[in-house]
Amino acid sequence: MNIQNANHNLVDHMLNLLSFPENNAESPSHPILVNGSFDAAAPLGSQNINPASEIIQFMDQMPGGFFIYHADGDEEIIYANSALLRIFQCDTMEEFRKLTGNSFRGMVHHEDLDAVEKSIKEQISSSKYDLDYVEYRIVRKDGSIRWLEDYGHFIHSEFAGDIFYVFVGDATEKKSKQLEEKQLINQEHLRRLEVIKGLSVNYESILYVDLETDKVLPYRLSNRTLKQFDAEFHARKFLGFISDYVNTWVHPDDREQVLQATTPEYICEKLSHAKTYYINYRILINGKTLYLQLRIVNVSTGQQISQIVMGYRRIDEEVLRDMEQKQMLEEALQSANLAISAKNTFLSNMSHDMRTPLNAILGYAALAREHSYDINAMIDYLDKIDISGRQLLDLIEKVLDIAWTESNDTRISETECNLRTIVQDVYDSLLPKAQEKNILIAMDLTSLVHQDIYGDSDKLHQLLKNLVSNAVMYTNPGGKIDLIVKESKNLSNSYATYQLIVKDTGIGISRDFLEDIFKPFEREKNTTLSGIHGSGLGLAIVKNLVDLMGGDIAVDSHVGEGSTFTVTLHLPIQDDPLFADVATKEILAQLMKQKILLVEDNEINLEIETNLLAGVGLTIETAENGSIAVKKITASAPGEYGLILMDIQMPVMDGWQAAKAIRNLSDPQLARIPIIALSANAFESDKRMSIESGMDAHLTKPLDIPFLLETIANVLHTRKKNLPGS
Ligand code: ADP
Question: 506 in ligand 1 pocket by Cβ < 6 Å?
């Protein structure tokens, strides 16, 4: 309700009373603003004066602030009630006037004034009832700042012109509560931003897009998207941004796809089914291809899809991984195909290779039948049948072996076995074949120290046999094969590393074929071409076995010169009580690298002692009497012999004489070779004689190997200690 219309006269009278005291004859000065309050006793000169003055009195006593001021000019205050004065901490109107300059402008904090006046003006011009509401700060008498909320009413009065009636209340507490809430909201907002930041760490660019207004706003930019915005990162048109980006960075082959997947229509269509979708594409930077993913997420609050977030991230690793996997699958497929074709080749070779001995068997059997009257011819045919039968058997065994070693459940057993025995057995089994072809086989086990091992004796035997039989097979008559075992032992653990070397002076293997040599069914030349019967499975079996034992196989070969196959295996050695003590072990290990001269005239003793000593890994040379022994030592290189075991009673020169002769040699190192007497004479006098003739110890026969080794270790240990400089 408009007060002006409702009670025009009363308001005018009020204003008359408040603003123009001179209209009231008896009033000498301002009638109402005495001490900030209305002076009810002031005489009034019309019939409306009483109700007007009652209202004024009422206003003056209202608990909330109330004032009236001129809307124009200096906005001079016409009236202020006691509550307003209290808000400003003023006791009198005088004080209030002084503090505020008696104007509305003076009441409002200067920082808020412009905004307040503007807001009042706008509200009044748009309000049907000429009402406004504003909040502003004031400065009180003591300088403290309070917030007021101001409900104003604009009216036009005949007496006072345009004026405002204003009710005010102290809103400081309310304001500070609002402020606190706002701060809380801000903190929550910041926290959410941090969460978003954390979750989007993989995205190098993040953009906010409003499809409705066609605006894109950057949130995070990469080196590339950075160039799509101005220096202040202002929002720009979305469609313009997309086409810029695509034409600048996207790989020409992917442009169409990216443009199509980022049209507003496509985005809306996609996001109407799902919250998010992505596209992968390539970009080109200095000719280098990088892989990116653009993810688009619907963040619109309502049903309509208008706000979206676009995140760009690099996916090079994922793509490369995918590509690698694809390549691996392709390779697997290719090798599966190769294996199939290799097997097909094998089957056709096999049928040929099987037919050859079978034809021979059947043919010779027929011939034998025909020549049954001729016993010599019969025997010859039977021998040939036997050879072909064995070839067939070998082929069948190998096929079974390869199938067996390729099956997953093949186990390698670790049982006690002796490496020397295994090598010797292989040697023995292939020696006749080699001799048949006039091929020399030499076995060298001199560096084999720990022959008692834990291993799979059958499989070790098989792998070595395959290698040696190949060497025999592919070496021409007059050639040579070396079968060598080398050991390198790490004394600190219970394993030793062995190299099984099969070296031949055979036909050799071409460089190209070396790459395929361990593949099943592969042969450099088939039986027809080479005239050598085979299956192409022997080395594949060897390779499988070596792999199963955790070892390694290498081949070095030159066509026309020969081949060397080296198998390296790490095998557990059996605990040898003879080698329990580390110092003894070291000394004996050193001795095993040298030769021992066993001087003995009795042939039976010589054989027994040689075998016993060789059995513990020592390398033995022999001499039948003292004189031969002296000659051998004189002719040897210093260090070649590590020890002499000397019988005493011998023809030509006995052990004592020989020992003296050796001690008198001109080469000091040869003269110092340790000598241990091995004698049937057990008298103390004999022992003394041995020591006096320069020997280091005297042992009696029969030989006790552990005691001998202990004595050897003691002797060598004492020698080492007594060496100058040690
Ligand atoms: P096979 O001997 O039955 O053909 P292997 O798998 O044992 O099958 O050998 C595969 C091929 O490797 C042989 O056909 C031969 O061409 C070549 N090869 C193997 N060992 C030797 C060697 N010691 N000297 C020359 N060639 C060899």
Answer: yes
- From the CB of 523, is ligand 1 less than 6 Å away? yes
Integer Cα distance of 478 and 434 in angstroms: 10
Whole-number Cα distances in Å, 292 to 261, 271, 320: 14, 20, 12
Cα dihedral: 119, 125, 127, 131 (round 10): 60
Helix (H, G, I), strand (E, B) or coil at 677: strand
Q: Could you give the 3-state DSSP secondary structure of residue 567?
A: strand
Pocket test for ligand 1, best of 345, 405, 482, 517 (most atoms within 8 A of CB): 517
How far is residue 696's CA from residue 56's CA, in Å, rounded to a whole number?
A: 140
Please report, as a single letter, which amino acid is at residue 297. Answer: V
φ, ψ dihedrals at 488, nearest 5°: -125, 120
Confirm if 455 and 417 have CB atoms less than 8 A apart: yes
Contacts 24+ apart (CB under 8 A), 352-358: 352/526, 352/527, 352/528, 353/395, 353/526, 353/527, 353/533, 353/534, 353/535, 354/392, 354/395, 356/388, 356/391, 356/527, 356/533, 357/388, 357/389, 357/391, 357/392, 357/395, 357/533, 358/388, 358/392
Number of other CB atoms surrounding residue 407 within 10 Å: 9
- Mutational pocket test of ligand 1: of 501, 519, 539, 541, the residue with most ligand atoms within 8 Å of the beta carbon: 539
Instruction: Check: CB of residue 107 under 8 Å from CB of residue 138.
Output: yes
Best mutation site among 352, 354, 468, 470 for ligand 1 pocket (most ligand atoms within 8 Å of CB): 470
Residues with Cβ within 8 Å of residue 306, at least 6 apart in sequence: 210, 211, 212, 300
With a 6 A CB cut-off, is 709 part of the ligand 1 pocket? Answer: no
Tell me the C-alpha distance between 316 and 322, whole Å. 10
pLDDT tens for each residue of 208-235: 999 999 999 998 888 888 888 988 888 8
Residue 548 Cα to ligand 1 midpoint, Å, equals: 21
- Burial of 492 by CB count in 10 Å (0-12 exposed, 13-18 middle, 19+ buried)? exposed
CB 644 less than 6 A from any atom of ligand 1:
no
Tell whether ligand 1 has an atom less than 6 A from the beta carbon of residue 474. Answer: yes
Q: Is the CB of 152 under 6 A from ligand 1?
A: no
Q: Which residues neighbour 101 within 8 Å (Cβ) at sequence distance 6 or greater?
A: none
Q: Name which residue sits closest to atom 25 of ligand 1, judged by CA.
A: 508
> For the chain, what is the mean pLDDT?
84
How far apart CA 618 and CA 612 sit, in angstroms, is: 9
Q: Is the peptide bond before 477 cis (omega within 30 degrees of 0)?
A: no
d(CA 642, CA 713) in angstroms, rounded, equals: 12
pLDDT at site 98: 93
Whole-number Å distance between alpha carbons of 201 and 224: 17
CA distance 545 to 404: 10
- The answer to whether 53 touches 31, Cβ cutoff 8 Å, is no
- Quote the crossing angle between the two packed helices 705-722 and 603-615, to the nearest 10°: 70
Measure 529 CA to ligand 1 centroid, in angstroms: 13
- Between the alpha carbon of residue 487 and those of residues 448, 612, 643, the distances in Å are 5, 20, 21
> How does strand 440-444 pair with strand 415-418?
unpaired
Q: Where do we find the tokens 């040898």?
A: 576
Name the pTM for this structure.
Answer: 0.40
Residue 344: predicted pLDDT: 75
* pLDDT tens for each residue of 58-80: 888 888 999 999 998 889 998 99
Q: Ligand 1 centre from 26 Cα, in Å?
A: 142
Q: Is 617 in the pocket of ligand 1 (CB under 6 A)?
A: no
